[in-house]
Structure formats: C-alpha cells, structure tokens
Amino acid sequence: MMEAGARKAHKDELIKLVSVWKTYRMGEIDVHALRDVSLEVARGEFIAIMGASGSGKTTLMNILGCLDRPSSGSYWLDGEEVSRMSADKRAMIRNRKIGFVFQNFNLLPRTSALENVAMPLSYTASHLTEKEARRRAKEVLERVGLGDRLHHEPSQLSGGQQQRVAIARALVNKPPLLLADEPTGNLDSKTGEEVLELFQELNREEGVTVVLVTHDPHVASHAERIIYIHDGQIVEDLPRLHSRSPSLKEVSHEGV
Amino acid sequence: MKVYRTVRTALKSLMRNPLRAMLTTLGIVIGVGAVIAMMEIGVGSSTAIKNTIASMGANVLLVFPGTAASAGVSFGAGTVVTLTAEDAEAILRECPSVRNAAPVVRARTQVIYGNKNWVPSVMYGTTPAFLDIRDWTELAEGEPFTERDVMAANKVCLLGQTVARELFGDESPVGKEVRVKNVSFRVVGVLGPKGANMMGMDQDDILLAPWTTIKYRVTGSPLQTVTQGSSSSSSTTSSSSSLYPGSGAKLYPERSEAQAASQPMPVRFNNIDQILLAARSAEEIPLAIEEVTLLLRERHRIRPGEPDDFNIRDMTELTRTLSSTTTLMTNMLLWVAMISLVVGGVGIMNIMLVSVTERTREIGLRMAVGARARDVLQQFLTEAVVLCLVGGMVGIALGHGGSKLVSVTMGWPVESSPEAVAAAVGVSAAVGMIFGFYPAWKASKMDPIEALRYE
Q1: Domain spans of chain A?
Q2: What is the per-residue pLDDT for A251?
Q3: Residues 6+ apart with CB under 8 A from B336
Q4: CA distance linking residue A48 with residue B321, whole number of Å
Q5: Which residue stretches of chain B have pLDDT < 50?
Q6: Does B452 touch chain A (CB under 8 A)?
Q7: Alpha helix stretches (DSSP H) within B359-372
Q8: Which residues of B touch A123 (CB under 8 A)?
Q9: A123 to chain B nearest CA, in Å?
Q10: Secondary structure letter of residue B390 according to DSSP
Q11: Suppose B174 and one of A162, A226, B142, B208 were both cysteines; which one would form an S-S bond, judging by CB atoms 3.0 to 4.6 Å apart?
Q12: How far is the C-alpha of B348 from the C-alpha of B441, rounded, in Å?
C-alpha cells in the first residue's frame, strides 16, 4: 500500500479517466452504462473492478481496453489521449500497450501454444523476423511455466494451462497493462488460484499493471485495490487492506 | 517478409480444417482442370482440324493467265497465254513465302485400257511438286513420276482412284500401259483416295502426267484441243504435233505473213494453263500474293499503271472456314472456362462466409490484440486467394494429366498450352480476389466487442 501510494505521488499514471460517460441508445431511451466515471491507476498497480452483472463493469473494461470509445469524457493511457483515436490507431495501442486475458481463453484451435502466443506479433508495426517472434513467444511461455508445452494444441492442454497460454499471449508484446476479464471464470478454484498467483507474480516481478474484472469477491481480494461499480458509477475505491474480503489475510502475505 | 507471413498464416488457418479447404477448392480444381484439359485437347484438335483444312488446299494459290479483251468485250480468265513453266520456277526460287509451285497444263481426252475407256474429269500435266502442294504425297500404289520424267517428257502417268477403278477394276494398274489419244502412257502409280471436294466434284477422277508430255504429246495435236480454249493457242506453235498422225483441218484460216506481221500474237512456246502455288501458311497468303504479283509483273515486263496479265486466286472460302473454326473453338473454351470458374468462385464465397461466421471469435480476438480492419481483410482475402491458387495448381496438374491420359489411351491429338496454364493461374487468383472480397470485407467490419462475445 505504501509503495502504491508512493507511485501515485510520482504522478506516474498509466490510466486516467476523466468524467467518462457511455450512453447507449435503445430506441427512444438513453441507457447510461457509465456515468461520470473518473479513475486513475498508477503504473504497477494491481486493481480489481467489481460489480454485479449489468453494473457497467464490462463497458468500463471495453473502454479501458480501447475496444470502445467513451461517449464523453477523456481517457489517457500511458500519456496518450486514446478516446478520440481512430479505430486503426486504437488497434495499434491495443497491440502495444494492452494484453487481454479472457474468461474463455480465446485460443486459436488446432494451433500450437507457441503460435498462439506469437500471433499478436504479426500485427506489430516493427516486424520481427519469424525466428525472433518464435524466440520471444518461447520466452513468455517459459515465463508462465509452459516451457515444456510449446507445441501442444489447446485441446491437449488443461484449462489452467490454456489460460496460461492466453496470459503468455497477452504478455508477448511486453505491454504495460494487462486486462483480465473474469480470468478464473472457467477454471476450478485450485487452477484459478494458480492463475491469480501468476498475475500477482507478474505484477510484482515484471511491474505489469493488472486490471481484473470480476464479480467474485474472492478473486478481487488478490488485488491491491478494489473498485466497486454499481449502476455505471464507481461507488467504492478501496485499497485492499480495507477490503471486506474473507481471504484478505492470507493474500496479504503473498501480495506486495 | 510480410507477404510471406500473411501467406503462411493463411495456409495455417486453412490447414486447421483441411477437409473443408479441400472441398471448398474442389470447384476451382475441377474448373481449372477442365479448362486445362479442354484447352490442351482443344488446341490439339484445332491444330488437327487446321491441318486437315490446310490439306484441302487452304494454302493453295492459283495463278491464271490474264484476260484478253477486245473493244470492251472480255473473254474471261485464261484467254491470253502469258504464263510459262519458267514463271513457276522463278516464283519458287524468288518468293520466300511460297513453299512450292507447280505448272499445270490441262487436257480432257479419253483414256483407254484394253476394252475399257474413260474420260477423266481432270487431266493435268504438271511436275511432282503438284502432289506436295495438294498434300497428296501418299500413293495407294507405285511411285510418283519424277523431275527427270518431266524433263524428258516421258510417257508416264499417275491415276486417281476413280480412273483406276473404271479402267482396271480390281487389277493393279501399276506397270500397265494406257492410251491417251494414241499416246501410250505407262502407269507408275495410283493416287491415294481424296473423295469429293467442297463443290461435290470427284477429286479422284484424275490423271496426272508430266506437263511436257501432256503439252507436247497429247494436246499438241490440234484436233484434240479444239475444245480447249486456253490450250488451242499453243497448237500453232507445238513442234511435236507433227510427230503424230491425225492433224486434221484447221479451225481457223491460216494467217498470212502480212497478217502475222501487222498483228503479232502473244505466243510463247512453253506457255502453261495455270500455276499452282502453296503458301508456307494460311497467314502468309496475302504476302505470297504480293510477292508473286511483283515477280510476275517484272518478268512479264509490265509497266507501272498497266493491268496485270495474270490473276491470282486464293481459297478464301477455305481460309475463312479455317479461321472461323479456330475462333469458334477458342470462344467456346473461354465460355466453358468462365462458367466453371464462376461456379467454383461461388463455392469459395459460400464457404468463406460460413468460415467468417464460424471464426467470429477469432476475428474479435485478432482485433483485440491489435489487428486493424485492413489486417483482417487482408487475412481472409489471402486465404481465399491461396485456396484458389492451390486449387488452380492442382487443377493444372489434373487437367494436364487428364489430357495426357486421353492422348495416350484414345490417341487424341493433344498440345500443351502454356498460355492456358498462365491464364488458369491468373483467373483462379482473380476468382479468389473477387469472391473472397465480400466475406473478407464482412469480417473486417466486425465490432471486436460483439465478435468476442459471439457464441
């Protein structure tokens, strides 16, 4: 906590949302998915965004991931105003600055782990050679503990392993931000715990900023900071020590 | 590098479902295969047809002596005697687009063998080159007469099938003697059958002999040539006519010395009735006509501005048949190719659309990790083109193999056609582009959020 506070003091913000609104028009009625959301996340933080379904957390996640643009307000990512960028520019930002981890892994079927991981590299503007790309993919796979599964296809891997491949894919371009949408939703509690520990490890050792989106308080308790969202508004923004998670204590040993 | 990677990615995506890829491209494989096979067989048969038509004399040109006209009344072709056997030799020597040339002297008289007689519809005095020009070098029996026979005016002849049948029946005529107006000819060979020509005239009803023999030994006697307008003029000069009996009354009164001096007649000793030419190819016919015209004008000392004293005819009808046959063949193949490739293309489009829908999540994922719309478009377009190209290659191999098989098993003439191969590759790539574009465009227009959530 102290460390996180110190980082904030340096104003080293990775994410800065200023009064972001997201409005969908459904027939005659405007539906506000996000209302005046302002948020700052410092580099190296591990935060969780919690909320019930329909609370707007997925919308927030889409905006943070540059998949969607706010209706109003601005979003600064790594010092760049991304809310007004064109689709192509946002694609480039996603490629360089953001790693996505999905609930259902989204791996390419019948494609080896190595190639799944190397896939984002083919959209990187600075073209690596084929060899270089494979070497980097191999490195990240080793980093997530799958050095011996390089040529396995998703169907030959367990759920936990698949999610690790997905995490490796998210990391292959060395992005500062890792966005995970219910990363443990399809995993049993034991492998889920392992995946969450991997996130913590990456956050701690590589300095990757992790944003977890979840509805599960237990999962959220792995974060340093938890943001509760309800009806499109941030209702609580708590450092982990104030969190009401039951597993708080044991996590505090591992975290920070 | 980028192209290589894109193609590799496309190949990998296709290999994720090899059976489907194979079935998808089957339309192109069959289309291109059919085109290649049709093309090779078609070009082969087209060449064969061309050769056949050419053998009917499409390359043949006829040079006739010019027209005599008096006070505006024309007497028709061949009424002046200006062509000589030397002209034929000069044409062959000096006109590069002429393959062969033969002088022709015509006659029409009775041929007798034993107690049978027959009047061949065509009796030509010529040189051995005639057989080459008419593509008639295959004899049913015996051998053709030779240049030496021509020079010596030897009494030898070749009989057409009809003449041989009428005079000899089942007997072999070779070595036998036939009489042509009291001149005894030894039959050296029997021509191969050629059947009727396009006008329905029996081409086998023919007797061929050295032109010197016909001219000096047969038509030389004036009595026999009174019906031959073109040959009659030669009778006055033929010295060999005195060798034989039967010189009857002259048709025209003898000209006096004074008449001959005041009105000289164009008389050549060795004039002939026509020259038969073969151009090197049907395309070279206009060139050959030009060359022959120039040469003959020079040889006949015709001043610029004066009309030709000869005329040249070509087989326009045959030539036109030939070119229209080829055009028809090519057009037909083109349409078959088009239709089959469009069908193949529709198949590609269909499956690509299914594939795009099926891979919505993949598209969403690729967009999430940084693929721009144009990257997605490029990927799917490349897949379609690669699929089509691979199909095209397999099709080319199959088509080529198929046509080879046909040529080996059925003996059809086959000619491999590099143009068709190039066209097939080009067209299959184009089909991939055209029919792959809509699915690829649809994929590129997806919203990544929706696509990722797609079940």
Answers
A1: 45-68+86-254
A2: 44
A3: B34, B35, B38
A4: 85
A5: 221-249, 266-268
A6: yes
A7: 360-368
A8: 366, 369-372, 375
A9: 6
A10: H
A11: B142
A12: 15
**Rounded CA gap, B123 and B102, in Å?**
15
Report the sign of the C-alpha dihedral through residues A183, A189, A190, A193, in that order: positive
Q: Which residue of chain A is at minimal alpha-carbon distance from B362?
A: A108
For residue B110, the 8-state DSSP code is -
Please tell me the predicted confidence (pLDDT) of residue A47.
94
Tell me if B369 sits within 8 A of B7, measured CB to CB.
no
Nearest to B128, CA basis, from B109, B162, B163, B156? B156
Return the number of CB contacts < 8 Å for A and B.
66
CATH class of the region A45-68+86-254: alpha beta
Query: Three-state SS across A184-240?
Result: CCCCCHHHHHHHHHHHHHHHHHCCCEEEEEECCHHHHCCCCEEEEEECCEEEEEEEH
> Cα distance from A248 to chain B (closest Cα, Å)?
32
CB A209 within 8 A of CB A180: no
Residue A256, classed as helix, strand or coil, is: coil
Q: Among A35, A32, A87, A65, which Cα is nearest to A181's? A: A65
pLDDT, residue B268, reads 41
Q: What is the DSSP letter of A152?
A: -
pLDDT at B46: 74
**Could B369 and A124 be called an inter-chain contact, meaning their C-beta atoms sit closer than 8 Å?**
no
Q: How large is the angle between the packed helices B316-358 and B418-444, nearest 10 degrees?
A: 30
Residue where the block lists tokens 């600075």: A126
Note whether B436 and B385 are within 8 A (CB).
yes
Kindly provide the ipTM of the predicted complex, given to two decimals.
0.88
pLDDT of residue A76: 92
How far, in Å, CA of B214 to CA of B237, rounded? 15
Q: Hey, are the CB atoms on B370 and A68 less than 8 Å from each other?
A: no
Test B368 with A67 for CB contact under 8 angstroms. yes
What confidence score (pLDDT) does residue A91 get? 92
Residue B83's SS3 state is coil
Asked if pLDDT for residue A218 goes beyond 60, the answer is yes
CB B186 within 8 Å of CB B246: no
pLDDT-derived band at A244, boundaries 50, 70, 90: very low
Q: Specify the pairing of strand B116-118 against strand B177-180.
A: unpaired
* The two structure tokens encoding residue A35: 């209302």
